[in-house]
Amino acid sequence: MSLLHGKDFRPPWPFTSGHIQTMLSSSGVRRFLLPSAAKAVLQGAEAVVVDGGGGVRLTGAHTAQKVRPQSRGLAVLFHGWEGSVDSTYVLQTGSRLLADGWDIFRLNFRDHGDSYNLNEALFHSCRLDEVVHALGDIAARWPARPMALAGFSLGGNFALRAAMQTSRVGIPLSYALAVCPIIDPGEGLFSLEETAPWFYQAYFMRKWRHSLLAKQKAFPQHRYFEMSELKQHLRGLTESLVLRHTDFKSLQQYLDGYSVAGDSMQTLQIPATILTARDDPVIPIAGFERLDLPANVELDIAPYGGHCGFIRDWGMTSYTDDYIALRFNAVADAAMPAG
């Protein structure tokens, strides 16, 4: 089967709305309507803790495939900000890849997936080293090859940045795919505050405040924030926490620390794909159009899909499931010895 492309995603009304796509992507309605096959990755999943280096521990879940005599490889999945290994899009993608014979590893970032009590320091988006170290631990403990990585939203940003590091540190990552990744945080993340409808910021801020309160409860002896700071909007709260808990001298320096804008990905040595939607109301398309990419990185801009939606119809399955699976399978097929 040939690879799918963003231009081929032509959903019926009302799924041509980027807002409908985005709101449904992580909704309880979608989780309820999804077929049971979209949750198959939960069956037989082993909850594990992986080494993030320097005493950091991250949680995750590994599911071994049972449909082939030999695994196609190891698929690693990264969720988005305030998501988890159990986010709908992660379960759906993992289940699709599992059905094709991939072993699946779903990783929680620090302070995601109820892992607040594992590490005293707060999560922030520049904690790349621990994610790369965790990838190395995952590769060593589950040696199915090839190893391919997919991430969504902030997880897509992490996937691209990790892929730029893996060759340097000897992690055998063969391919990376990012769905609607944050490109320029200064432009993208704060579009939630400046241009996107109010309910997107309200949604993310509600989840973030809940996480911060859960972190405070896990370490009551540590003052992470003042209660008055929690009342701030996205920009203000981010700046307060960055200045309080990191070595960055300014909010802009922090945002630049996880940017993949412009020619940042010229050092990426493995094949990679970036899929986004022109109607994404969360991450502005302009940042994608300004990218200066090496030949091994594919940029695929779909006309529809919203932010990490790409929902086909009322069955609530996503175009990204087949999109990712076909690209991962092509990587596995290319890695098979001739004859």
UniProtKB/TrEMBL annotation:
One of its GO terms (molecular function) is short-chain carboxylesterase activity. It holds the Pfam family Hydrolase_4. This is Alpha/beta hydrolase. The active site is at residues 153, 280, 307. Keywords: Hydrolase. Gene3D superfamilies: alpha/beta hydrolase. Residues 70-290 form the Serine aminopeptidase S33 domain. Belongs to the AB hydrolase superfamily. AB hydrolase 4 family.
